[in-house]
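Q: Okay, next protein. This is T9SS type A sorting domain-containing protein from candidate division WOR-3 bacterium. I've checked the sequence twice, so it should be correct. Can you predict the 3D structure?
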Amino acid sequence: MIFLFSLYFDYYPYAYYYNLPIFSKEVFLPTEKSGILCFDITKKEYSFINIKDGLSSNFVKMISFSDDEETLVVLTNKKIDFFTRDGSLIRSFSFFLPLFPDTIGNCIYLKGRMIYVGFNNGISYFSIDEYPYGTKTIKYFFRVKSIASYRDSFYFATDSAIYITKDFRDTLKFYSGNFNYFKTINDTLYAFGTSGLLNVLTKTKLYPYPVNDIFIKYDKFSKKILIGTPSDVREYSDGVWKQKITGNFVGVLYFNDSIFGVNRSYGIGFIDSSKIRYFYPPLPGFAPACDFLEREGEIWTVFGFNMEGIFGQGLKLISKFSNGKWFTYNYDNSFQIPPRFGNIEVDSKGRIWIGIWSGSTYKTIYIWNPSDTLKPILVMPPDSTVAVTGMCFGEGDTMWIGGHLNYIYSVYTGGDTLQWKVYTVQSIVWPKNIVYDKNGTLYFGTASHNYENGVFYKEGEGFYKINYSFGEIIYSMERDREGNIWVGTDKGLFKIVNREVVKEYDYSNSNLYPGAVAGIAFSKDNTPWILQNGYGVLYLDKHDIWVRVEELTGLRTVEACKSMFVDSKNNLWIGTYQGIFKINLNIFKEEDKTIVFPNPVIYDEHKKIKIMGEDIKGGRLSIFNSGGSCVLEKYIDTDSVIVNVSDIKKPGNYFYIIIDKNNNKRSGRFYIIK
């Protein structure tokens, strides 16, 4: 029997903001990773529209409104989605070849019931009521980044110039420059981008440097121009540009007599006297959650490592999830401690230990009791280190801490004072994963990019390496419910019992994907769950087959961190670049969506496998072995397909993918025994 799944999960996204559509008192912030964040500027409250609400992708490229201002039109990197003002999905339009010049659009422009879409190699336009019939497509040699209709002409913003056309075929260069967007304000068309701010009609350059956004406020006798740039917010008044505040601002607006700006990383804030007060969304940090703990029924996490080149806010935050809400601390660095927050643990007294990855200061270990103190307190061990690489609260009130290069600390936390012991182990470099097994044996997994890595254990006062080829880097380690150790690497997943490897899952001997195992956790029934970078979340079923959760494919996290955690209520928490996901494993149910008869299949050339499913007629079946190689492809001419075992050639684990005539995918697994 093959099972597909009904997934119950909560999603807490991260966002990098850009553009600034505003209607009435609502600001709509499109993001690259989190869908649409809606901000009520009077109530100072946030809400969201994302994939859970029907958005085709969390990568939102552009937002617009219909002429009646009742429909929100959203361009993602997959489709155009139409929503009501309250966030209910109405319909979606996709782009497909050869009717459209490309499958991903750059921009949209609405005029009446017509939609104009800019692509990397042309434009398409069609009626909302007739899509896809009547679609017109024109190929261009330039990338269309923005479209505007002004007076009796259309304008295109491109990397090299603004082009003008009346019929889309005779297109003329209007003004040279790299522009990203158009805005029409008080019957005046403005273009802005890398080449500055331009009044299109008069061809007047109002600002010569890069501009991200523009907003104009008209008084009785004057007007004020507000711009957001990659370096600041500026206001033009009485013939002078004045700097209001520094920072990378992708959106600006006046509301009543106040100025608001949208910072790329921090969100929306009120600007006053060269200062800004951000209205933080109820989100955790802008980097993958890299460690979790549970304290008094609350989930805590930190966001210390962001390897995608965007630093700042995501590096010094600590968040807790309590009573269904997120609370985030240290937005303004009130803790006054250095970056980056990399590890957290809680001791028997309820104190949170924070490990800092600094690289330049020895202030790297802090203790915080949120019930008693406003901010963490620095503790200095003997022979301090510039980076904490890993932490584990072990047996006997002892905290184990990995340090920069060869340092390992143990500290007894149960007394009135902390009692430290320092080890220097030349063979253990960057011990980022620390766990202990059912016998109390301590294990260390290293993640150096310059030295040989491996798995080590402590016996007495000595440290020893397990002689086994685990791979290049130890990405993750965790103890299962029986007290055994599991190790995730770039090579695969390994199970250790009493210091010996007893099981190995990799790309060649199982149906794991080739991505690194960057997270490991165990449900209350001891089911292994893993995160494979680039491939998503999988669990091991009762047939020893890895099953991927289709709704969570493509997730990634940073290497050598604790990206997965199961709390006392059997909720699985997953920290990724795409956000934090929480799965309630108590109600994660199997349902008979697609059925394979019989299962298992005895290997015999006369045996047949029957795969059934709804609406699969006209589709195509592909069967893959555990190594990912396609062993069979078949056209499906009915609502079921027969597979001869003799066509598969040999016993083993197999999975299949069906792509139906509407390009929808479904998958399943079966195995053949001798």
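A: Here is a summary of the prediction. Residues 8 and 187 are 49 Å apart (CA to CA). The two ends are 18 Å apart (CA to CA).
Q: Noted. On to the next one.
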